[in-house]
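Troubleshooting: if your tokenizer reports a length mismatch, compare your output against this known-good record of 495 residues.
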Amino acid sequence: MSGHKASRPQWVSALLCNWVGIFGLLLAVGSLFAALFLVAIDFLRGFDQPYMGVMVFLVVPSFFYLGLFLAGVGIWLELRRRKKSAAAEARVEACGEWRTRQLVAVLVFTFLFLILSSFGSYRAFEVTESPEFCGALCHTPMKPEYTTYKISPHARVRCTECHIGSGASWFVRSKISGLYQVYSTLTDSYPRPIPVPVENLRPAPETCEQCHWPAKFHGWMELRRQFFLPDQQNTPWNIRLLVYVGGAAATRGPVGGIHWHMSVSNRMEYLAADESRQTIPWVRVTNRETGRVTVYESKDNPLTPEQKKLPIRVLDCIDCHNRPTHIFESPYRALDVSLWLGRIDPAIPSIKEKAAKALVQAADAVSQATGIALIAQALSKEYPNYQDQPKIEQAISETQRIFRANFFPEMKTNWKVRPDNIGHYNWPGCFRCHDGSHVDKTGRAISQDCNTCHIITAQGAQQPETVSLKGLEFDHPGGEVPPEFPCSQCHTGAP
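Known-good structure output:
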């Protein structure tokens, strides 16, 4: 019994007489307190950060066990020292006196410090998960992405919810890749423009489909596009479409439309010949209900032996919606909207063409500030004697706003290096597969019928008089264009 009583003070005093043991004890107690504090917050109000669960149940316990390990190491080191030291008894007595006088004060101070640091740690984690941290504080090279994010349809969605999602593995992976990003930022060695990490993106079913699941979509959606021709009159040209979005929920209607590609009854796969996935020479469609497999290969760009070794990708949301947030508008598209909304007066002769040229020239400037100044110089020179100069000043200001929102010379980033696969106007988009040259072994091609995905209900003047729910033949302003001719062959978004 007396031996047991003597053994307790032995290891307790050994723990408190060694700084490694003391540090381990404080780390373990602090981690335990932090875990209890965060669990209480989670229970009372929940976390809106996708990785706080990882912090509470993975990171904090790791520090707790590390503290226990260090406490054990401290005890072992002190006991070994006592066996070797002749002054062990004196050390134990002195340590006991120190413990009596100072232990309470140290524990009180530590407790108060842990309370403050717990709140601070939580707030620090919250800040590092915010879009402001990603885009403004630490990620200066991400200015183009952060600027477009703030005016995007996903402006209220945190960066981490799409770029990382939930789960420990992707959290750790993002932090590891972030180490190189920190290094490249500090050393100014990052590429310009920043490459789009399409090969490292998390699969869309784990991110996009948390809100936009395939079975959700059905029916038609009306789309109105107001164009202005790049002529002297800035001639308006209106197109109204019914876009057959369709869906994949047989309980809510026929499965079809554009989102047939994401139907649960189909599996779409493809091979891309380039990193940006703009050239797709091979497509495979599997009907999950019947098991039928159909392979389409491009006659114009057949697979090479090297391309046949490339990994096959399962089609998901991002293959078409590749610019859901970071949208870089082309000069023509951005100016169309400004003219439509009256931010630029369409009565100013050739303003669309001249403003677009000013934007393209400013894109090659050394900085955004220089580009903004070049726009003012170019448009002022074009309209020195215009009768309504305030209208010219307004047009200059709006063109500069377009430049600030879409052009980033320091990062060499604008619409030309950020393909947008929705539609098929300035980029191949749908025509990557629906170009008429992808055929199966029987010679049957993937459909190129425009009415498969949308119908034109009205077109022409700003207030079209002819409306048809059966669909109109496309009337190309300026002359006939064969229906199979890709828009992007001529339309590049700028002069």
